[in-house]
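Fold sample X.
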Amino acid sequence: MSEHLRTALRLATRGVPVLPLRVGKVPFGNCPACAKNVCGGRPNMRTPGPCACFAPCHGWAAATTDPGVIGSPAWAPAWRSAATLAYHPGGAGVTVVDLDDQAAIRWARENLPATRTVTTTRGEHWIYRGTLPSANAVRPGVDIKSLMAYSRWLGPGAGATVALPGAVRALAVKEPSSPRRPPQGLSVPLGGQREACPHRTPTYLDRGIAMAEQRITGTREAVHATVYRTFLAVLSTHGRCGCLTEAHTARLFTAAQAKGESARHCTDAWTNALTTLGLSHVG
């Protein structure tokens, strides 16, 4: 039995879904029955586990905690030639912040809470308790590996694993090449059907936006519903007189994305609020 297989079986007993990797740190290719995904893949590729062929097919989705599968004859050829071992972080209930160089490590030490740390060839893996969508190149030298991804197993690391912080969730939805802002089609002011402005001073609007930001930032559950209701409230009060600007809506989008909402979800919530209020033709 190879060392990689022994480690895989040990991790599986701890609830960590594992899979072998070949040279180059990549998964093994699909077996002939699954080549080019002719088998149709798994019914739900969001969950780990083998295809019906029971070979280590379909990349990260092959990761499993079933010792009968891991040690099966179908997996034996892969273990014999495996160069290293990987696991599915999302299936293990964790998120890996992959820091690829010393500059990225310095940034993490200044901006992220300390957690369990694993040394890699060129940098470090910072492991947090909790899951979120994986994302590459969220900033220079930083990848996020959690759901629908795999990460090399390089040992248990050191330190206590802490809960996934909002700073990491915000990274996963950040658009590195451009600032967060509503898409051009949703630009404001919403002046297409100006009504008499009910705001006595600009302070009234600024206070309303600040309260909306606080409502989004302070929510601990049902984030998407809270974001939609907040957008609806802001637009119902300030959406018809033309006082809202891109700076105001960008503040709302930024607050929502810091709570884990994607740019797509923000856009959908904003559009739905406009439609509900009969403002979808304004912009």
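Fold sample Y, listed below.
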Amino acid sequence: MTETLLAIGIIVALFVGYNIGGATTGVSFGPAVGANVVSMLGAAILMSFFFFLGGWIIGPEVVSTLGDDLVPREYLTLEAGIGILFFIGLALFLGNLFGVPASTSMTAVGAIAGLGMATGSLDWATMGEIVSWWIVAPIVAFWVSGVIGRYFYPRLNAWVAISRRETQLWRVDRTGAIPRIRAADGSDRREITGSLIVVGIGCYMAFSSGASNVANAVAPLVGAGALDYPTEVSLAGLSTTIGNMEWGVIIAGVAVTIGAFTIARRTLATMGNDITNLPLTAAVVVMTVSATIVTLLSAIGIPVQLVVVSTMSIIGLGWGRATRTTTVSEVVRGRKETRVSVGALTAEEEGEPAPPIGEEEPADIPKASDLFDPSTTARVILIQNFVPLLATVGAFLTFRFVPIFGF
């Protein structure tokens, strides 16, 4: 019976990881794919490798928080773990079905919190700490991005000049005995450098995603000790033991890889082309700020909602860019009004220098609707808030009223 339950638990964990791969690949590599800097296949390969790397190095800290700290171990049985994973996977699957990368961290925490509330065992101190960081992290992302937008973004945009292409930047040259990857004809050095930056930041995002999200797929099983089968492995003369935690990271990595190669195509299309015309220079700034915040918090065991942090980073970057129409002294003296809009990020083309602070007219700042597609953005926000709520309520009702779990 235990072996059957474990098999079911691993299958459900694979299903959750599969959907995480679909959701987070779009967030990490959507801008690069939308700009034809990397193909969907290339995005899947890079996502798989760097997600596993982040999960292996930093991920265990978040796994411990979700698997040990939110709910006592005696309540996190194998049966309960399967139930939690089911609701996480179902909620994320609905998000991927609509092509929306939902917040896996909020969904996982919500499902575990549903168990804790149903059994009266939720550690409210840990829950409060997590929620506090959920509030603080977007605020930090907003202000850091705002400073960059006002003082550094125009210079970065003029220097890097990353632009979207109609055709693929990289091609495979098969004329020789060994295929080689070469830049497309007509590509200049700055465009190639910019493309490498976009891909590099995507890899960094994938790493931070692994650090934060590997726990969402396997924390219930690891917390229940269901994967505790120590195995000695030797590689390049080095020996290590793969135990409960390591098996969890491996299972999550395999599942995310499958999701990245399959269902991620929907979210790559949404994040790369449909929701926004965000300039690639701005996307690089947003991704760097967001990935750094997520990685740092994951290192102390806090699961963070990457989607919300990224959104606030976009808003902060646009706000900072828009405030360049006025100087600090003009604002203090009330001599000039500022038209604040995230559409300010499209005020100049890639590589075009911006006017000095205070020498730009507010009327020259584009509206937010010039940057975001309103209908797609509304759909994304609605589903991203509905998915975690569905997991929380579903888990609470199940663990509270279904006697099969023995609570």
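Sample Y note: Residues 275 and 373 are 5 Å apart (CA to CA).
Also: The first strand starts at residue 170 and ends at 173.
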